[in-house]
User: What shape does this take?
Amino acid sequence: MSVRLAGAPRAGGWIGRPVRILLLLALLAAFVLALRRVDPARALEALATVRGEWVALAALCYLAILPLWAWQWHLLAPRTSSQTFSAMLRVVVTTSGVLNTTPLLVGEATGVVLLVALTGLERTAAVSVLAMDQLLVGVAKLVVLATAALLAPLPDWMARATLGLVVLVAALGALLLLGASRGIWRGVAPRRSGAGGSAGERVAGALDALPAALAPLRSFPRGGGALALALVKKAVEVCAMLCMQRAFGLELPLGAAILALGMLNLSTLLPIVPANVGVYEGAVVLAYSRYGVPAEQAITLAAVQHLCYLVALAAPGVLWAGAARWSRAPDGGR
Assistant: This one.
């Protein structure tokens, strides 16, 4: 899961680039303006009253996304002798760390490389896993936004962005279902000639491998299970936000957490700053301001929540990658 939530994973092409950039700049500007209005003394007072046990529970909720994500990819990937849950967990943990600390597409490329290297997938299958993951993440985000809209009217900009997301998720779904259709490339793509063939032969070979790579879209147990896990990951994110509200002593309706998650889902589609610093906080502050939460409390909550998110979803991958590099160094890195 981009987790993204968490999580998850990213969908940079779902909303027009100029619209996305303007939205992110607006969120950054809103965050900066909110900071200028903040009373430092009141912000420190809000931080001093935080209940640590609820913050820890929120971090555990975010951490639970990683095994759920690994299970989801385990269902989506073709079965190989190396494609075990433990190997997939390593892929997901490392990919999540890169996704949350680097620019757009670096994390996605890392995921493909690790799927090939650690689980033995063919490159076409590895790319297909990411493509199917993006489709399921998009569907899960739409479910979050639809739920938020049922509980309270969405702001105009969110409604417009949601419509664009619907169109692009539908387009991606149609494209993947087309590729997954049995026998669609029969008689179109020649037999694969291996990695040493021409560029045209390699492309034809990739097209020939698509139906098998996208087989989960034709399987209810695998595709339906992966979709259920994508929805569970979003539910876990909502639980983390509810824990954070309790940590700050806020008695808000469920819709507040769902709206905040919906705003985060839209605002973090295209990361233009490392770890979405500022954009993440701006989305959370904007969501909670609609429920009358004071700026000092909203900003402090957003900062602590973002820190929990990064500790849970980025730190394990960074530490795992560092430990692996250290173990490969001569004399154990000494």
